[in-house]
Recover the amino acids of this structure.
């Protein structure tokens, strides 16, 4: 093989990861766009696309057609392979847990029925959710190339421990990542010491990653995501496509911003934190309602706002109270972080959908740059962004180096 041919081959292989990420995030719908984005020749882009297709990761249409009225040579369309490999995504929260299989492009292939009971032993819970994932793999016959876990706690790096699972009965410092990997190995889904042997992260962090790549955060350079879990409030920041987790994975604990001095007692010992002033429990208390004990409080709170905001004055006043306090917290974050977009998820998604004008007005009035910067505040676009985000953790090694990851 000549040196020139060897160099071209190496250049093409080094472009496999970037090319796959462009298709995965929807940024390269055609081979022509892929060529331009990679900055390579048309021949190299074609070779890269062909190799990704041979690996079973993407599809390339054999007979390209040009849109009606367009000029120039039609380009081959690219898409993720709907029958390709998947990753196992798992989420644990205070109201239960769920497992899913997620393909490239953030596409959920299959989900297991959610469970509403979370054991005090993390090993028991993770064993159950992995078993649910193993059954999905058995019934679908799909190849699994990684696994990711979302939990309602800051996850310290590099230890992989859950530092503050406040709304679970787990002990602080529970080794969730190592336990998850052991469960995956016991179920013979993945090797415990493999490069994609299982990842774990905070649920709002991975939700932000999912929204940035596949949802309402697409195109933002400095994306702030804030939202409620089933209990409490979290935040995350994506900078230039990468999740900002701080020096040890603990950045953006926004739930403990004070938005109502002297208000409700927070788990952290302070009063009036965003965590307890704008979560589902706060909405029910303000509206004089009580959630049903046998169903998700988060789902019930969102449904209450969507169904009764315009018809029940008590619900409207309660939602307005939460909106005002949420807006105050977001204004403080805008002053500190200066994001170019804010995406709200969980109950906050329902609040901005109900009265986005009021919320944006509070942010504008209370922030230094709100009026001039007009930071967009938008609802999340993904219904299961924490699951999709957990999958993103598992897909990352494949996006970084498809050949090595799939050979493992």
């Amino acid at each position: 093989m000549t040196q020139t041919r060897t160099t071209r081959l190496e250049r093409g292989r080094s472009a496999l990861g970037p090319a796959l990420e462009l298709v995965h995030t929807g940024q390269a719908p055609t081979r022509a766009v892929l060529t331009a984005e990679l900055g390579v020749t048309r021949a190299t882009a074609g070779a890269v696309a062909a190799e990704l297709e041979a690996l079973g990761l993407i599809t390339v249409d054999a007979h390209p057609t040009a849109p009606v009225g367009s000029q120039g040579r039609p380009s081959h369309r690219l898409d993720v392979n709907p029958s390709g490999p998947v990753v196992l995504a798992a989420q644990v929260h205070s109201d239960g847990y769920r497992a899913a299989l997620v393909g490239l492009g953030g596409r959920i292939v299959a989900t297991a029925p959610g469970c509403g009971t979370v054991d005090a032993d993390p090993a028991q819970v993770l064993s159950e959710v992995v078993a649910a994932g193993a059954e999905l793999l058995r019934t679908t016959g799909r190849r699994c190339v990684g696994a990711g876990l979302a939990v309602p706690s800051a996850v310290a790096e590099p230890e992989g421990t859950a530092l503050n699972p406040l709304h679970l009965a787990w002990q602080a410092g529970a080794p969730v990542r190592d336990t998850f990997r052991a469960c995956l190995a016991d179920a013979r889904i993945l090797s415990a010491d493999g490069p994609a042997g299982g990842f774990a992260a905070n649920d709002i962090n991975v939700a932000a990653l999912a929204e940035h790549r596949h949802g309402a955060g697409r195109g933002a350079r400095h994306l702030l995501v804030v939202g409620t879990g089933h209990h409490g409030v979290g935040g995350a920041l994506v900078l230039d496509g990468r999740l900002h987790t701080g020096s040890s994975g603990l950045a953006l604990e926004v739930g403990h911003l004070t938005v109502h001095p002297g208000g409700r007692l927070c788990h952290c010992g302070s009063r009036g934190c965003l965590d307890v002033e704008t979560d589902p429990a706060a909405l029910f208390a303000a509206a004089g309602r009580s959630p049903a004990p046998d169903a998700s409080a988060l789902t019930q709170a969102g449904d209450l706002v969507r169904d009764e905001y315009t018809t029940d004055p008590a619900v409207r006043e309660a939602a307005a109270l939460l909106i005002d306090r949420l807006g105050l917290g977001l204004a403080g974050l805008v002053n500190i972080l200066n994001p170019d977009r804010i995406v709200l998820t969980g109950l906050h998604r329902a609040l901005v959908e109900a009265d986005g004008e009021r919320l944006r007005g509070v942010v504008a009035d209370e922030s230094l740059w709100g009026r001039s910067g007009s930071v967009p505040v938008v609802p999340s676009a993904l219904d299961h962004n924490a699951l999709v985000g957990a999958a993103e953790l598992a897909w990352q090694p494949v996006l970084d180096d498809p050949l090595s990851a799939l050979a493992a």
User: Anything to note?
Assistant: The chain has a mean pLDDT of 89. The chain is about 45% helix and 15% strand. Residues 156 and 249 are 5 Å apart (CA to CA). The chain has three domains: 3-80, 86-204+386-407, 219-381.
